[in-house]
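re: ur msg from earlier - yeah i can do the beta-D-mannopyranose complex, just paste it... oh wait u already did. ok heres what im feeding in:
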Amino acid sequence: MLIERFKGNPILTRDDVPYPVATVHNAGVTKYRGKYIMIFRSHLFNGRSILGYAESSDGYHFTVGRHPFMEPAGTGIFKEYEEYGVEDPRITSIDDQFLITYSAYSRHGVRIGLAVTRDFNKIERLALITEADYRNVVIFPEKFDGLYARLDRPHSEISPWSVWISYSPDLKFWGNSRLIMKPLQYHWDEMKIGPGAPPIKTKRGWLNIYHGVFPTMDGNVYRLGVALHDLKDPSRVIAVGDRWILQPEEVYEITGYVHNVVFTCGAVPEEDGSVKIYWGGADKVMCVGTAKLEDLADHCLAHPRNPL
Ligand code: BMA
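and the outut:
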């Protein structure tokens, strides 16, 4: 097993939240001042989502903040595009600040918002950084030739749900976009793939832990896979591991708000070469497991497939 599930899973449920929510899932996680900070998604009882805050000293036992962290904006352009809710946050630490990307839902579709914080107390919405029909934007924690880089996942009928890369000088304007990874027909991720956790730097390349979806008669199954990107040029995918690294197996992954889902928005690398991978179980609870970064890189290289 590449990923060892924490025995105390699920680590966070709606019962841990001091305000009324139906779910706790798909959380971005990072470290700040020696603490693990988790920004999680919750469905309200009207089916729309908000983001909550939790913190932990060991990465396993989290305490939830008394109030929501982010709710749909009340003013300006963000109000118009977040009307239906904010979802699936990813956190990247870069330049002494934390960048939080999130899906902004509205009557115009889904696009990506970018908020910035230095202390998880004061948050500023910087920009809406995609048009509609984008989800799953993860920003690299380093710049490349002076440019920020992100993986994202636009959708079109001709080339459905594939992974692209884009660059930006200022986090607001993004370009030089290119498709770099596609779903593979009749494989576990044949229907959709999308970036999961913000990429993690290892000696052998950037690890991109992503999700893949397979359609079945019983609905879609969400699993996790991993790909390795070149350290200097992340648009170059060195290898995509052909086999999944995690699939719904435990009761809290098989049944919940949406059945058969493991979905990651965050993973925290540790100094000992391990990584804590966080995932939502069945869109209802938060889970964690550990893996070795070396093993994940080996997995990509041992069973590689063509990214395109
Ligand atoms: C995707 C997103 C995720 C969710 C997944 C499974 O389309 O909505 O937030 O975890 O479906 O329901």
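cool cool. The chain has a mean pLDDT of 97. ping me if u need the other ligands too
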